[in-house]
């Protein structure tokens, strides 16, 4: 049983603590360096199932600009972000669009909607 040590910056608050994370058999066994209780949760989530928000654009017809900024409504599995971005390259919507409108429902069956992040 080898113990792996990773150093990572926590992104759960503005402090950005440098965490030292010990991992044994794919499980977090200890976290040090955090100044608040959110650090260990972030480290565990980042090691076991990393997730990210997706911000991108989609084509829009009849808008003031050719591209509409969009964002994922919640986090996506990190390993699927590029697949989602590739999917969005083929999406075209028609104006008018309001901030918060769902542009793609349940992208790639991940249970996350892609929403407009501005009116156009």
Task: State the order of secondary-structure elements, H for helix, E for strand.
Answer: EEEHEEEEHEEE
First and last CA, distance:
55 Å
Q: Unreliable stretches, pLDDT < 50, 5 or more residues?
A: none
Average pLDDT number: 96
Return Rg in Å.
18 Å
Tell me the major beta sheet: 5 strands, mixed
Task: Say how many strands there are.
Answer: 10
In DSSP terms (H or I, runs of 4 or more residues), the helix count works out at: 2
Structural class, from secondary structure content? alpha+beta
Strand content: 35-45%
Q: Portion of residues in helices?
A: 10-25%
How would you summarize what this structure contains?
This protein is 16% helix and 38% strand.
């Amino acid at each position: 049983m080898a113990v792996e040590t990773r150093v990572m910056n926590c992104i759960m608050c503005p402090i950005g603590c440098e965490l030292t994370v010990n991992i044994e058999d794919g499980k977090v066994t200890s976290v040090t360096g955090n100044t608040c209780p959110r650090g260990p949760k972030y480290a565990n989530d980042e090691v076991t199932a990393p997730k990210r928000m997706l911000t991108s654009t989609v084509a829009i017809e009849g808008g003031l600009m050719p591209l509409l900024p969009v964002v994922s409504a919640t986090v996506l599995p990190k390993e699927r972000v590029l697949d989602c971005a590739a999917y969005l390259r083929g999406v075209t919507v028609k104006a008018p669009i309001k901030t918060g409108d769902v542009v793609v429902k349940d992208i790639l069956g991940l249970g996350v909607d892609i929403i407009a992040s501005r009116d156009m």
